[in-house]
Protein 1
Amino acid sequence: MFPRTLSISESSSLLLLGPRGTGKSTLLREHFGARATLWIDLLDPELEHRYSLRPGELREQIDAASAVDWVVIDEIQKVPLLLDVVHAAIEQPRPGGRRVRFAMTGSSARKLKRGAVNLLAGRAFVRHLFPLTSRELGPAFELSTCLRFGTLPTVFSFTAEADRSSYLRAYARTYLREEVWAEHVIRRLGPFRRFLEVAAQANGEILNCSNIARDIGVDHKTVASYFEILEDTHLGFMLEPWHASVRKRQRQSPKFWWFDPGVCRALAGTLTVDLVPRTGGYGRAFEHFVILEIVRASDYCQNDYRFSYLRTKDDAEIDLIIDRPGRPPALIEIKSTDRVEPRHVRDLSRFLPDFPGADAYCFSRDPLRKRIDGVLAVPWEEGLVELGL
């Protein structure tokens, strides 16, 4: 098991969210394995059926387990009605006055919202677990492997590339079956299956829902709802366009980034395509990887950073803008080159007068630190440290 950055607080109940396969259950088993814990795995069909018929049975178990201080419920979105029981148990101590705390995992925010997860507001910390970061991988980290196959923990249990590819294809099929179709999130699987492929191919591009709708044969509102499903199941996130005016920002289109490069490549059907340095495909994969590293590290640090991008009408672009509370914004250009030159930071340097006091960086594979036209070029690993991550 790789050591995870996310730490579990003992002072409050916990709702741990994240896609399937990121290691939520493994993390909780490692943390609670040596203590008396009531463990409920709702991926077991019999248990799911039992609690669906009678959610109140959970409270009876808790009251009977006097030595248990923690209850772990895996994939609680399978039986959202249990949230009512959890809420009551947090508020009301057991006979004898001993309170119980809960550690719950979930992979579908959509079902949790329908299950009134807001009842737990302020009563349970909400944290997210992502695929492995480069720091968590430690000596096992290899950039080329992460760009091609992503960083889901199970990927690193295989050594053969063919096995890694097979796992990622199976992961994509499992998601379709278990997270979407079996949960009745959508009415027709065919258009959504085509949407996933198109959305994966458009990873990191400015969204044009109308074009995607034409490609898969649905209306643009349906495409927008599909992207909401991906966000609710933690399979990706929107990177909003930057603008000083919130009103104007809402008139522009966001980018959508998938949560893992390997899953993205599996859905796009490009797992067998080599990623060769100094090509456009390699550059896009590197940008995807670095943005994920930044977003994951920020979430684990809980520093309230906000992320956006900027593109002008003449296609000048800032890959990532980070609003940092109490600190100047950070403007980041991401280049896969192993030798940063003035041409690589030309767009970024021309934006500097529009962001007085901002810190400007170029993150790349170049091992040398250098300052070019007001931009600090650093190796991407050092860039995370520069950002305070």
Protein 2
Amino acid sequence: MDTIKRLGALTQVELADATGLSTATVSIIVNELVAAGIVATTQVTRSGRRAIQVTLSRGLGLVAGIHFSTRALKVVLADPTTVVASQRLPLPAEHRHDTGMDRAAELIAEMLASIGAPQSELLGAGLGICSPYNPSTDMLAVPGLLRGWDEVRIAESMSRRLGKPVAVDNDANLGMLGESRYGAARNAQSGVFVSIGHGIGAGILYNGEIMRGHDGTAGEIGHVRVVENGALCHCGNRGCLEVMVNSSAIVSSLRNAVGNVTLRDVIAMARQGDLGCSRVISDAAHYVGTALASVCNLVNPEIVIIGGELADAGPILIAPLEASLERNSLHNPLHPPRVEVSDLGEDASVLGAAAFAFDSVAIPVGGTLEALA
């Protein structure tokens, strides 16, 4: 299965070469997977000889999950049970919607071709953006937060490129959806997903449903003020959480001490015992816990999930965040919210986008997508 996902459609002979298994063993395994409906076989001709080609079964069709973060585009193709293809591309800061959407459509076409699937198998797509989205207008809920995307009808634009229906949501909402379906929040009826990287956003699960608010701005904890008269945020306010805790702010605060580093460098150095790097991560955790406290008082979630690039800091981030959350919220020692690092990592939002596509533009099915490698 991993070999087919990685290399695409293969004949049984090619599968034997790629896996090191005998052709007889491959034939037995393929027959079992065909009987289970997991793979499909077709007769093909290779080098003048007839052969049996093996592909992942897609009887219920495929959807695309698309995630535009501030610095990257990630796309997956998924059926109801597994991710069958995945691609990631870096994006420039303040990337334009048109070039990004064009590239996403090109990637989807290339990925469909790589797994031997015709365009007709694509049922639709889910798309996540790193800004609040208003479904009633099909545009950003707050102009100016994602430059180059104002006045764009996002679902309509992407749908026109794909020729398929597209469902759009904020990426933190989709991260929460992904975690509730396939990750740390499975079986939870309430939770908060916080993504910390170039920006900060939160998705809120309440009574099993994603809370979006009347115009799509629910969960925007990145614009909760945590420092009175702090630095100016691009939203126009001062001292927002997103100004105090983002990758640029964290690395900038260390420039005099350790020079030019990336957030990944800071996390690695903190793990190695660097006191300065550990301190700035702890400071970031304090601010996030302060903002989260109000959310927890209002929602009373079962679980708080930390995702995004900073989540890789693990206990260095989680321990002071839990302490800040306890100090600033109504703490119930018998039933405190669990605080955990995302199970899905940087794939939470794109997997949530695929799930959202099945919910919104494809036939509703119960799948797990647990085969993501």
Protein 3
Amino acid sequence: MRNRLALFGLVLTLAGAPALAADAPPTPCRLPGVEHDARCGSVSRLLDPTRADGPRIDVHYVVLPALARNKKPDPVFFFAGGPGQSAIALAGPLSRQFSRLSNRRDLVLIDQRGTGRSAALTCDTPDPAGPLRELADMAGMHERLRRCREALQALPHGDLRQYTTTIAMADADAIREALGVTQVNAVGGSYGTRAVLEYLRQFPQAVRRAVIDGVAPPDMVLPATFGPDGQAAFEALAAACGADPACNARYPALLQQWQQLLDSLPREVRVAHPVTGQPETLTLTRDIAGSMLRGPLYVPALASALPLAISEAVAGRFEALFGLGGALGGGRKEMQMAEGMHFSVVCAEDAPRLDVLPRPAPSTASAFGNTFEDLYRDTCARWPRGPVPAAFYTMPPTPAATLVLSGGADPATPPRHGERATKALGAKARHVVVPQAGHGVMGIGCMRDVLYRFIDAESDTEALAVDTACVESIPRPPAFQPVRAAAAAGSKP
């Protein structure tokens, strides 16, 4: 669910995947960024679970073994976000983030079908150094996605109806069985929370504890929430700036400044490319501006520079806005999202509900408009849709103690979604909101210790009573000031 400036260009090439006839038990392997040996394995799964004689795919997983001699029997299963992110590609940072937790428990990372090593449905990401005009070409993006879909369908594993969350969680339980464990501790972030909720629904007795961070419930209707949730996060940023004397003095009337910028669009602008530094000319539209605003809102440290970027853009200087807009893109190829899997999930589970979702009347003051929803509508109109059971959209009471985490400043999965999930999950669910945090709070401050204590607690009662005060008071980063401005302010008597 993370937005990038790179959303505007998906140059397409495709990668096939081999298919083995049997499970591959975990064997020793090395992973980038992981200090100790891991074990890599796979389970052979039917592409279409209803066709016993149909093609098979390998669903890959890795085990980061517990370091303690007397380890606990219940591993931690981690489910990645996106949809479309590879969990195995995150092994390095996750091994450090969960180091205390994984001292006595194995950490299992599954590349969900359609991602990473598991029958990947990938399209090439755009060259971040490519011309801005091409990266911002929405019509070109629609066409590239069309070509991507057609090429993916020609692959041996290209039945795009077979990549729903429901099928993928049956794969995950097959991995649990292959490892010979009775229960797991299921942890997921962003879209991974939807995976955990579906795993809980299908296999409730297989879950000992659950942690869902940045909740995307099954009834969320992702494309429809982009605009209102992003707008709410931006308005909260503007309100925080207005309440801070220093920010308000330097960047007064932030919402009005943004509206002033939107009212001037579309128009030709000249801007230095944020990667190459070369000046380029392109037509800046409301859609492009909204996309560049959305990305930094995910990370409060980046969002703290938005008041400056907006002020600069109103004055005709767009480098800061373009730089922030592309700050979350790029990275290693294996870390990038499998767009084919992404659309296979969203087009099956969310798109059919777009027209039945009640929503407020559109506003010309919205920073985001309908850009993202229109993209999904167009793409999903032609994308094959897998069957989704009606029960998928429910969240039955959980038998496992469940920690629900939300960032109060999150533009993608704000607390309103976590609140709804917590209410549905019942007495064994607890919702913790970190008021000034963005998208994802598991790695913030002492939350690593909170997760450890929650999962390590002997009883559900003790787990749900874990002290979280250390993260609930984390402040919002102050508005960024240029070095010269900060120095001038510091020199005043």
